[in-house]
Structures are given as structure tokens and as C-alpha cells.
Design a protein that fits this description.
alpha+beta, 4-stranded antiparallel beta sheet, 35% helix
């Protein structure tokens, strides 16, 4: 056996490693695909609000991967079962409608809990001076929650300026009482 330098490796061992390298590369690649591939093994957020916060932060960061891991159904995150091209198209539209400068979660309402496995979280977006309130329907997945539905119509068209709420006319001035004239206006 021939020893290679001060490493203490012999030539037979180096030859065996060289022959095994393609197998190691294939196994390593498969492990990498399994770890980074479709569908995350990360648990869904523990509360509906945490799922919405994560989703909105992914929207702000323009992370389709982050959005895809928090949007789905009771089957799991959409990135685990939806075709990649379709998923990217849908998430791009959602990201466009939900683009925001900031957001805030509103207090839950009594009707926000239609069933034990579904919740509605109201989100107020701030975008170009507009503040639409967008309902997110959440669904339970395992021990956590995912965004299942988003009312994009409530977000308004992101390419248009928001319309000002209709102005209510001021109340009519009270009629002067008889015999009294306003100050400064003599009879």
C-alpha cells in the first residue's frame, strides 16, 4: 500500500472513494431535492393571525415560495400539490393585489368563526393612500393554519387610485327663530 503524504490515506482507500463518488453525488442530490423540493415539512403557523402575518410578510418580500407555503387548503400548502406554473401564476396575481406599504390585523368579529376548522381574519392594507379591508379565510391544517381564500375584490384594483368615500352633505343650517336675527345682520 502506498501512503499519500501526511494525511495517512492509502492509495487503495482513495481509489475506492473515487469509484464511490458518483453514487455519493446521486444520493446527496436526492437528499437535497427531498429537503428543498415541493412541499415544506415545516409545520403550519399555530394561529390564523400568525399565518396571515407570515403570508403578508412574504407578499411584502415578494417571496412566492413563502406565500406558497402559507396558502393552501386542508390538504396542505399549495406548493405541495399544485402544479408549479399554475401556483406561480396565482400567487403573482395575489401578490399584485395585496401589495402594500403596511397592513394591520383587525379585531375578530363574532361571525369570523364560522366553524372550528375555519376562521376569517380581516386585514386592513395601506396602499397609495387607500386602506381597503380584505377578508382572509383561514383553514386548519394539522395543528396549524393556512390561508385558504382571499377576497381580492375587496382589495380594489391595484392599478387604479382609490375612490374617495362618498361625501355626506352637511346637515342643513337650523332655521332662524322668529324675531331673532343673526348677529351683524340688522333688519
Amino acid at each position: 500500500m502506498k501512503w499519500l503524504g501526511s494525511t495517512g490515506l492509502n492509495s487503495a482507500w482513495v481509489a475506492n472513494v473515487a469509484q464511490a463518488r458518483p453514487l455519493v453525488t446521486v444520493i446527496g442530490s436526492l437528499l437535497l431535492v427531498a429537503a428543498c423540493g415541493r412541499g415544506s415539512s415545516a409545520p403550519a403557523p399555530a394561529s390564523p393571525e400568525a399565518a396571515v402575518r407570515g403570508f403578508m410578510n412574504a407578499v411584502k418580500a415578494q417571496s412566492l415560495a413563502g406565500m406558497g407555503s402559507l396558502w393552501g387548503s386542508n390538504r396542505g400548502p399549495a406548493n405541495s400539490y399544485m402544479a408549479r406554473e399554475e401556483l406561480e401564476q396565482r400567487l403573482t396575481v395575489i401578490r399584485t393585489y395585496l401589495a402594500h406599504e403596511q397592513y394591520e390585523l383587525l379585531e375578530p368579529q363574532a361571525d369570523a368563526m364560522p366553524a372550528a376548522d375555519r376562521r376569517v381574519v380581516q386585514v386592513r392594507l395601506t396602499r397609495n393612500g387607500c386602506t381597503p379591508v380584505v377578508p382572509f379565510t383561514m383553514v386548519r391544517y394539522g395543528a396549524g393554519w393556512l390561508v385558504a381564500e382571499i377576497d381580492l375584490a375587496a382589495a380594489g384594483n391595484p392599478q387604479r387610485r382609490c375612490t374617495a368615500p362618498p361625501r355626506t352633505p352637511p346637515p342643513p343650517a337650523p332655521a332662524p327663530r322668529s324675531g331673532n336675527s343673526p348677529i351683524g345682520l340688522g333688519r
